[in-house]
Design goal:
Radius of gyration: 18 Å
Order of helices and strands: EEHHEEEEEHEHEHEHEH
Number of helices: 7
Number of strands: 11
Helix content: 25-40%
Largest sheet: 7 strands, mixed
Structural class: alpha/beta
Length: 242
């Protein structure tokens, strides 16, 4: 478990938004850290407190990153070939909640691939009282190579209502999940979208995508400042109540 915030100085404006980062299928937290921190500029990473966690289950088969990144490799849950039936899904949700209790509080989630499918569904499941009931509401999402769950049992609950938390979605022109990612975006209110020419990967940020990412960060910082001012006003009113 590693936090990027532990190694970089805090921004003068205050506490950086803390994100739990959920890696891709049969990779690891350490691998995702290299994928993100190794590619994104400090203009972005210095404004976030990123915690990279390993999934609960050792990989049950060959990893697509074998020979590129060193093991061990992990997976969040298991699925059948048509992606509509899952094993250990409830255990996965409980594991993430325990991580958030132990390492939090967290403001948001960042996910890639299997981790992004999870991250994108969790706010809706939390709203329904079906996941993350012991931790604060998820406010922000960074979704890279995402998609919806195909299981009707999960989907009808996770995407029952438009998801209102601030989100940014990375869609790759050559990503095999692109069409699924486009459908996922439709479930969100006012999402930020970053399009890139690559495939199913964590992309580098070119000038255009960096501009979008910085606007997203500005938005969540403005939201955090507004919430802090509102909280301060509430305290002041309580102090002056007769």
């Amino acid at each position: 478990m590693g936090s990027l915030g532990e190694e970089e100085g805090a921004r003068p404006a205050g506490r950086r938004p803390r994100f739990l980062c959920l890696h891709g299928f049969r990779t690891s937290g350490a691998i995702m850290r290299k994928q993100v921190v190794g590619k994104w500029p400090a203009d972005v990473t210095a404004r976030l407190d990123l915690v990279f966690a390993d999934a609960p289950f050792p990989a049950e088969g060959k990893s697509d990153v074998e020979g590129i990144f060193d093991p061990p490799y992990y997976e969040w849950f298991q699925f059948e070939k048509d992606f509509t039936e899952y094993r250990n899904f409830d255990k996965c949700l409980n594991y993430i909640e325990e991580l958030m209790i132990k390492e939090g509080p967290f403001d948001g989630l960042m996910g890639f691939s299997q981790g992004s499918i999870l991250s994108a569904a969790l706010p809706g499941l939390q709203e329904q009282g079906l996941a993350l009931t012991k931790v604060p509401k998820i406010k922000y999402l960074i979704i890279i190579g995402g998609a919806k769950f195909l299981s009707p049992t999960v989907a009808e609950k996770a995407y029952a209502n438009k998801i209102k938390c601030h989100s940014v979605h990375f869609l790759g022109d050559n990503d095999f999940l692109k069409t699924y990612g486009e459908k996922l975006v439709e479930s969100y209110v006012d999402p930020f979208i970053i399009r890139h020419p690559k495939g199913h990967t964590v992309p580098r940020l070119d000038e255009k995508s960096l501009e979008v990412m910085l606007r997203f960060l500005d938005k969540i910082e403005e939201t955090a400042e507004a919430e802090a001012e509102h909280s301060s006003t509430d305290v002041d009113e309580q102090e002056f109540c007769p």
